[in-house]
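Thread title: Can someone regenerate the structure for this chain?

I was given the following input by a collaborator and told the matching C-alpha cells would be attached. They weren't. Posting the sequence so someone can regenerate them.
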Amino acid sequence: QLQLVESGGGLMQPGGSLRLSCAASGSTLANYVIGWFRQAPGKEREGVACISESGGVTDYAHSVMGRFTISRDSAKNTVYLQMNSLKPEDTAVYYCNAKLPVREYWGQGTQVTVSS
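Best answer:
Regenerated them for you:
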C-alpha cells in the first residue's frame, strides 16, 4: 500500500520561497503520475502541478506558472514542489497525489501560509 507524507509547509512572507516534499513508502513512485493540489479555506481543491512517470513532462496551473517547479527524485522516492515568489493567494493546504489508471493515493497535506 502506497503511503504519501508531505512536509515543508509553514509561514512565509510574500516573495519568499518554500520547498514541499512528498515522500513515498510502501511502493515505488516510478509508475505513478504525481500531482500537487491545494485547497484554500472555503474553496475547492485545485490542481497546481503534475509530473509524468519519467519526470520528462510537467504541467502547471496558470496561477503558478513561472513561480513553482515540480520535480521527482527516484532514488529518494520523493517528489518536490519548489515554490518561489510566494503570494498571499498561495495560502492553502497542499496535498500530494499519486495516480494510476485504476487508483490514486493522497497524502495528509501540509499547510502553507503566505502573510506579512
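The CA atoms of residues 38 and 84 lie 16 Å apart.
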